[in-house]
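Exam prep: given the inputs below (a chain plus oxidized coenzyme A), describe the expected output before reading on.
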Amino acid sequence: MSQLIDIKVPDIGDFTDVPVIEVFVKPGDIIKVDDALVTLESDKATMDVPASAAGMVKEVLVKLGDKIGEGTVVVRIEATDSGTATPAGPPAAAPAPSPASAPAPTAPAVAGGLVDVKVPDIGDFSEVPVIEVFVKPGDVVKVDDALVTLESDKATMDVPSSAAGTVKEVLVKLGDKVGEGSVIVRLESGAGSASAGVPVATAPAPAQTAIPAATASAPVSLAVAAAAPTSSDTASLPSLPLGSVIHASPGIRAYARELGVDLTQVKPSGPKNRILREDITGFVKDAMSTGIVPGRTPASTGGGNGGGLDLLPWPKVDFAKFGPIDVQPLSRIKKISGQNLSRNWAMIPAVTYHEDADITDLEAFRVQLNKESEKSGETKLTMLAFLIKACVKALQKYPEFNASLDGDNLVLKQYFNIAFAADTPNGLVVPVIKNADKKSVFDIAKESGDLAKQARDGKLKPADMQGACFTISSLGGIGGTYFAPIVNAPEVAILGVNKSAMKPVWDGKQFVPRLTLPLSLTADHRVIDGALATRFNVYLAQLLADFRRVAL
Ligand code: CAO
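Solution:
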């Protein structure tokens, strides 16, 4: 006959109120003895609570974030075979150890200010393999800095330093099996620091160093962090399938949390599928270079597909097998713009809205002015210059377009800097006309012409490409009908323009030929809804149809 069994947290040493960081089971799951039910994590140890009996999960009595301790009922199961149940309490097969930080590690001083730091009481465990070594001779450590990580099949624990000082000797290496009392490192203690446990204010041990400065400071890292799950989102992540336990030390988990990395998305490269520090660093680097965070791509977070898509690796093809090839490195500009475009495309929920503007009168006006200026030698007016001026007017009417997202805030700009995409032999660059609201169409035509020339000559300075509020990408000189430009983050919208063409337009009585300019406005849907985007487009088309409106 079936029997209900409560599976409780076994003896976990001095630890109480340990947060649940992973829940592996749900009602209806069939579990075997020793299957991991939940993972608990303190600041020094991570431990799985294994099943002490086999059966079907009837109820899960804890959830992510709950703080629990010895005796807390984790799940209630219906034992399928009474013979498999073992008495409640610490499972005989896998008693969780007393976490390393609970008992104070012993640190007897030896001659000459040297201190041996030993493995403290780790419960019933002995012969536990060393899976990470965080220090090397010469490193300066503080009290409580992690020295090594030990990992049994059910728990991972950092051995913290019981003293501050300089590492003279590391007495264990990866793979060594250690137990209570094994000497891990010999330290030359800082004055008075060993027994008093006063941390030495020096550089942190390598285990706590941040990711390389170049990576940390790259602008893309912000976007990656924004898209990666924060600890508060983890509750919404699907729990892993039974048995898919993440093997990572507490230090590695803390490192992942610091970077906003979801460990379920990181490919482990360590023995027994353990996630190493390099795996997380590699994951972050990949996400930064592609702009894509696995498991958090728009495709997999959009719902609808029910499960989320894992990105396949980039296809590796030996093209030479199929015919002659020539390999050319990407230009510097292409590499940089490629990274930005990838990030923006992957991370902005963008929608493109189309509109046709009747520019018959504007083009006639432009041609007439250019004829006049031919004689006076004034700058030739371009359609781009009129577009920039009209966009400023539309941004003034719809300020949400002249904005940037900053976390939960929208930064509304009171200046009007308009960027335009310029095609150059080395790739795309985006110079900026600053304070376009204060400039005439002539000024803008001259300045955009100068900037476009500098762009083609590779002479733009970084300042020429900074501070934009809104971008225009004009392909009108080349052709095309419509396209979907990619928003130039942190801007929230971009206007694409193609070649104007004569089209028959119904005037109420008859079709009349009108010069029509195709507009393609892409907007960040987090800031701009479709109705607003369409209003902007309609207004912009009105301004271009009768440019006198710009003066109003
Ligand atoms: N419709 C019809 N003709 C147009 C037009 C339009 N929308 N826009 C420009 N033209 C005409 C111009 O009148 C000009 O003709 P004329 O020589 O007879 O006067 C000719 O096309 C060439 O114009 P242009 O494109 O060189 O000059 P511009 O001032 O309009 O644009 C610039 C300058 C820098 C925007 C452009 O040279 C350029 O690089 N465009 C490419 C932008 C790009 O690559 N965008 C894609 C980025 S990915 O989203």
